[in-house]
Design brief:
The complex is a heterodimer of chains A (85) and B (586). Helix content of chain A is 56%, strand content 0%. Chain A is an all-alpha fold. In chain B, a hairpin with a 5-residue loop joins strand 24 and strand 25.
Chain lengths: 85, 586
Amino acid sequence: MRAEKPSEAAIQDWCVQYLARTLDLPDHTIDPEMTFARLGLDSANSVFLIVELEDWLRLELTPDLLFEHPTICALARHLAVRTDR
Amino acid sequence: MNQTTTGFSPQVEAGARSEFASLVDVLRRRSAEQPNDAAYIFLPDRGTERISLSFAELYARAREIAWRLAQRGQRGDRAVLLFSPGVDFIVAFFGCLLAGMIAVPMMVPRRASSRDASAAILADCSPRLAITRRDLLTEARPDLTERFRTAKLDWVIIDCPNEASGKLQNTAPDLGRDDIAFLQYTSGSTSAPKGVIVTHGNLLENSEMIRIAFGNTRRSTHVSWVPLYHDMGLILNALQSFYVGAPCVLMAPVSFMQRPLSWLRAIHDYRAEVAGGPNFAFDLCVRRHRPEELQGIDLSCWKVAVNGAEPVRATTIDRFASTFAPYGFDARSIQPAYGMAEATLLISTGRRGAGPVIRAVSRDALQHNRIVAPAQAGNAQMLVGCGRPPCGERLAIVCPETRMPMGPGLVGEVWVAGPHIARGYWRNPEATASVFKVQTASDGAPCWLRTGDLGFLGEDGELYITGRIKDLIIIRGINHYPQDIEETVQDCHPALRHHGGAVFSVPDQNDEEQLVIVQEMERTFRRQITPEEITTSIREAIIREHEIAARDIVLIRSGSLPKTTSGKIQRPLTRQMFLAGSLSLV
């Protein structure tokens, strides 16, 4: 089990690296303020991102989350303060 | 009907003939003979309840909704079905059949998309009614009423308890094989969708063909996550189980995408015999395989693992079979299938337990539509056979130009005939005449369906699909028309000229189709906007409107897109130039 919870910055970095790998783009081109749609994340890849985040953070998440928090920044901010962590 | 010289199915004279008069007849029989057996079970996603419906309950609920429909419309009226995943879709579907109304299954349009096919479908079939659930309309998607305002739909809320209720009597209306059961809108572009007219006779005959090919019985429990508005989800899963009197366990598509192993777990839990999906579903299970999540799982019950709705890959079959063999999965259960809505669904498949047929051909020769053995291993392309025509169908490989039937080993267009070929496209006589009522050069009967797909028959009668005549793009089992995507691209910015783009797909390193966009950009706009900014806008618009990620977006000089002398966009040539790296970039 994980000792401490990842910080907002750590979650943000993780998302940038994950999306760079998934979308086959260099890390620096993934703007955390850009919407997931502008980054080119389709619905299937959105679900996969959620699943990977669940595995890593040990949280139950729904795919709607990316609709409610449509950028990496917003998502990381939300996940960092989730009380169920 | 005359016999063709090739592709003639030897069983044709015996012919599949379903014993039923209509789907309503099947429903009455099931309800009388096995009233308490489970017909449909909807598996809960986290936080929802498991819902089970017996054949008698299905009949009772369908009669209730049929009665309500009959108060508000007439026989032959179209009724749109708009549901999130669950058993209500099925109840509404049978309700329409009992009332003699024409069901029109439709995907719930995505919130963000502004030009999906829904508006054009409504305009095309002019439905009087729309059937849905209260929570979808009031909580999840309150925007739908406004979105469909101009269609002047009379909304029927299936779970509205206040409405006066009654039950339609057994006597009304009398339905036969020639009556229309439903319209399947999976063909045609977004702006010009085509509704395939499926009759009770079509459904019964294709269900009978599937039953024989799959060897299904009352014990053939199905587990399906494929959406019910998709022909594979409805006919191959939900209606086939019903037809043979077996239970169908339903899962939400998103549950499968999120936890593909839960599909395998359900197959184990319910000792299911039949479960299938498009090729990507099998890849996804392999990619998400976690041994610790599958402890104690036994898949030896799984006899028919149908792989259809997109090209079947040999590598997928190998990986899936070897990954899940330790859980008792038998590779011979994998059953590739080929079909389309215009043939109700199934056109060809293997036989239960026979296993897939895989054949190596020369990749270079195949590009020129010739089938020869590969000279060396590096040039081998593995083709997966899609089985043979089912009992009662005639299938021919025909030269698309001369319309002459072709012999085994030659690539031509796949043509099919039989009692499962749909009547045509709804209110579209031109498209119907060119696709459905076609004759070959060697026989006079205008009875053939042109599939638009290219393929050949092996000496043993096995059908191999090798490509398409039309520029259709298939990604994750969903058909996309290039012109729809090109239009979305061109609406992103004035620098992108209309009729100046080509969209196609190329396989990636995993042999999965990926979308590529090639678009001309006017040089005069270069000072206002960078190519990077335009690319980002295009990417976003493609996700919003079509739910697919573009693998590559290539902006080229205006006037450099390959076109014919008459100005027609040459997508295959553009694709070749993209692969060769010979496009003129901006």
